[in-house]
Amino acid sequence: MRPDTTAANLLLQRALSRSAIESFGLSHQIHFLEFRDDEPNDHVLSIDTNMTSNVGFNDALGLTADERLLLVFNRVNLRCVIRVACDDKANLFLDFDNGVHIRFAGTSVHGYEPWQLSSRTPLDEPGAYSLIAQCGGGYAIWDGSVTPTSHPEKG
Predict the structure, then answer these.
(1) Are 36 and 42 contacting, i.e. CB atoms less than 8 angstroms apart?
(2) Class of domain 3-143
(3) Which end of the chain is more exposed for a tag (fewer CB within 10 A), N or C?
(4) Count of Cβ atoms closer than 10 Å to residue 32 Cβ
């Protein structure tokens, strides 16, 4: 596993391992999931990629991909995350306490970032973070909750 993938997984664990979906929807043509945990900050996952899950649909319903995605989101609404992970190809995996498994592909529908997880806290405030999956692999990470180690000068 690449170092940026390891760092991304650590941030994902810290942010989402004790969380539940609080809301979901579509904002500015981008799908999102909002997570809440015991901490004061919410976490927002913005999604611009294809999703697969273990939730089945009858093809006779004629649902679009967007309709299927929102119905899966409805199935995990208010459900707790029991596993979250990403891989070197920027695929994101979420498992919930009701047995639903979701995979977000590491390639973007529109050629941009496939998904991004951020705190609701502005990035210049303590505890803020942003994890951006790069199309096809790799991560850009801003983690304001990690304070640099200081080295006192020798006197």
Answers:
(1) yes
(2) mainly beta
(3) C
(4) 17
Q: Is the pTM of this model over 0.85?
A: yes
Please state the domain extents for the chain: 3-143
β-bridge partners, 142:
130
Distance set, CA 15 to CA 71, 122, 124, 133, 155 (Å): 24, 15, 18, 15, 40
Report CA-CA distances (Å) from 67 to 49, 53, 72, 101: 14, 13, 9, 17
Determine the Cα–Cα distance for residues 111 and 98; give it in Å rounded to an integer. 32
Question: Which amino acid is it at 122?
Answer: P
Q: How high is the mean pLDDT in each 10-residue block of the chain (155 residues)?
A: 95 93 92 88 93 94 92 97 97 98 92 92 82 95 62 39
- 68-75 long-range contacts, Cβ below 8 Å, gap at least 24? 69/31, 70/24, 70/25, 70/26, 70/31, 72/100, 72/102, 73/21, 73/24, 73/25, 73/31, 73/33, 74/24, 75/100
Please name the amino acid found at residue 110: H
